[in-house]
Each structure stands twice: as C-alpha cells, then as structure tokens.
Amino acid sequence: MSTDNAQQAGRHQPPARRPIRSWQEAERNAAAWMRHWGYHDAAARPGGADGGVDVRSARALGQVKFQAHAVGRPELQRLFGARGRHLDRQLLFFTGSGYASTAVEYAAENDIALFVYALDGAMTPVNAPARRISSAPRKQKPARPAPKPMLSKASAPPRPAEPAPSKEHRPGSARFALGFVLAVVALALPASDSFVPRPDRTVATAAMLVVPVLLMVWGVVEKTRRRFGHTALGLFLLQLPVGWLCNARLWQGGIALTTTITLASTAAGVLLLRHGARVRAAQAKGEEFTASTAGGAWRAPR
To answer: What pLDDT does residue 3 have?
Structure first.
C-alpha cells in the first residue's frame, strides 16, 4: 500500500481508544468521535461558560455527561435551548450511563442524536439520528488547493457570476399553503354535482372555510419554525366530517355509516391536535432556555 493510500485509509479509522476517567477526557473523546463523523472543526471546551455545550462545531453542538445516573429530559432541553437560532446545527448528546424513556422520546421529536460511551472510549449510538450520523460516509477534510499562476488583466478569464442566494421560506408558509388549498376546495366543492349542500350552499361553504381561514391566519402571524405536522393532519381530519355533514348526498348511505365515519375522523383529529400541542409546548419550553444561556453566563451541571 502506498503512503497516500495508507494516509487515506487512516482517516476512516475510528479514534484510538482512550481511558475515560474524568469529564475532561469524556469531552475530548466526544470531540474526537465528532471529527471522525465528519465535523472536522469539532473541539471540546472544558471548563468554559458554554451554556450547556461542551463540544462545538460549525455544523453541530455536543453535550457530554460524566455521571452514573441516567440522563433525563431536562438535560436534552438545555441542549436544545443552547442551540438558539442556529436551527441548522445538529445536536449530539453523550453519556457514560444511559437515557430515561422521556429523554429518548424528546430526542426523537427534536432530532437529537444520543450516544453512550464506554470507559475505554468506544461509542455506541442509541437512537435513529445517532445511527444515521455514525453510519454516514466519512467526509474527508478538503485539501488546500494549489496556488494558481498569476495572470495579467488582459489574459485573465472573466469571473463567473455568483448564484443568487436562495430565499428562505417564511416560518408560516406551509400553514398558509395548506389553508389556501383547503379554502379552494371549500369554495369549489359545494358547487359540484356530487355535493348537495345542507341546509344551503352559503352555510355549507362558511362551515368548510373555518379550518382553512384558521390555517391561513396562523401562517401569517407565525414567527417560529416549530413543527406542526401533527396539528396540520388533525385539522385536516376535522375538515373531513364538516364536509361530510354539509353534504346531504353522503347521508343517503345511512345514518349509522355517516355517524361512525364522522365520529372516527373527529376523534382522530382531536388526538392529533393534542399531540401537536404537546410537541409545540415541549419545543417552546426548550427555547426558553436560550434566554438563560445568553452571553454564556450559565453552564449545565455535570
């Protein structure tokens, strides 16, 4: 094997085993593994006022616990809050013990990678985000390009125009788009041949516009990027029984069938709305930690 091939193969090897006897060694071990997974600038910040972050990278933040008891949900909430507005950074959590069931559930809802390290420095992924990171192809650190020869102004090639930066979507654009689609359906459906409005077209249209208008207003006033998938599906399921109740043609199939479908869709919609409210409340609670960690004046206990 040539020297270049040997060096390239060495980059893909996991970090060397190291005994973990203190939290400083645990943080340095976590930083080494993050660099192995492609976060080449990951570095430990032992002993600093880091607001709950022990390993920092331009694309990821890591927190390390050197303790005997299982990690709970509050520790993950502190890490989520320490990320602040940098929503593009991956969150990683490392511990030498384990995780409570509430912590695993919170990590799944907020895409936090959970790892458990052994006393010899070995690292084991616990959940799906962690397995995705540990099994992803290793990205080699780009080599510094060779200096280009100097060209005179007359022979220099024209500089290509830089692409315009992509516009970032508004936080509530998805909510507004879903409400707009449902509003179009609510306006067009009562006029179709398969729809017999009850008691009349005006009342049926007004009833079917409640959920779309709510979504569009929500999309206009929303300022955060919290998840709303469960809430959107719940509102959509609540829209179905409204359209069913306003269409006299559907009642011809029998009251029992109509009542069963209406109650089932309504119950499923309410359950999804409650689950979506819990998810948004958990994310809002995690974001509250951002204020307490501003300026790096607070550090989570180890």
So the answer is: 43
pLDDT reported for residue 62: 92
Taking a C-beta distance cutoff of 8 angstroms, is the pair 96, 121 a contact?
no
Model pTM above 0.70: no
Find out whether the peptide bond into 199 is cis, omega within 30 degrees of 0: yes
The structure tokens listed for 213 are: 């208008």
Complete domains list, the chain, with CATH: 15-140 (3.40.1350), 173-293 (no CATH)
CA distance 107 to 101: 10
Backbone φ, ψ for residue 37 (5° rounding): -85, 0
Q: Please report the pLDDT score of residue 1 as a whole number.
A: 45
47-92 per-position pLDDT tens digit: 555 567 889 999 999 999 988 889 999 999 999 888 888 888 999 9
- Using one digit for the tens of pLDDT, what is the confidence trace for 94-143? 999 899 999 999 999 999 999 999 999 899 999 999 999 988 766 555 55
- Please identify which residue in the block is written with the tokens 């930066």: 165
Q: Exposure pattern of 210-240 as b/e (b: 16+ CB <10 Å)?
A: ebbeebbebbeebeeebebebbbbbbbbbbb
Q: Which amino acid is at 212?
A: P
Rounded Cα distance between 28 and 45, Å, is 9
Half-sphere exposure of 132 (CA within 13 A, CB side): 10
Q: Is the dihedral angle over the CA atoms 290, 291, 296, 301 positive or is it negative?
A: negative
Burial class (CB in 10 A: 0-12, 13-18, 19+), 168: exposed
Distance CA(106)–CA(283), nearest Å, equals 9
At 94, phi and psi to the nearest 5? -125, 135
